[in-house]
Predict the 3D structure of the following.
Amino acid sequence: MFVRKIDVNLPDQSVIEYAAKLIDGGGVVVFPSDSCYGLAADATNRSAVERLYKIKQRPFDKQISCIFRDLEQIEQWTVVGKSQRKTLERNLPGPFTFVLQARVGCPLEGETVGVRIPDNSITRALAHTLGKPYTATSANISGEEVTYDLDEIFRNFERQIYQPDLILDAGKLPQYPTSAVVDIRKNRPVIIREGVAKVR
């Protein structure tokens, strides 16, 4: 696992480009998000996503959410009606994962997609540089606590066969709650997991 330092407030574009190149090539990168550290893989690359599942030791039938560049990119992957678009426009960027119906031909398996646009300079820079959605799952072993500290990440992954290729080191992150998960496929939002913010 290679490590590159990064500033959460003013990320070095050369580091972002290096991380994006690794992700684009099928690599898995640990990155600081608006809550905890996450694992990024190219969501359009099935083998990369499968490797991420092996790193997390996550069952393959459990879906993962993705980070998108903007609403237009979300609409390429999911069914977004007028009601859904208004909800997305009011709440993103923000600490939410919104569940939407997957479009026919969406690269991810499953009927739904969890979409995110965090209010975070690193995740947004990665999304714009990579140009396609990437996974937003937390950088921990499946079923264990989410990770805010790099020491925990090394303990989690250093002895495993499958490991991330790169860690973007932003130091110890503030322990913000994970994103709220909200199903907005129908007109009335359904809260699946409470978060730090309420849907507007």
About this structure: The radius of gyration is 16 Å. Residues 13-24 form the longest helix (12 residues). The chain has a mean pLDDT of 93. The first strand starts at residue 2 and ends at 5.
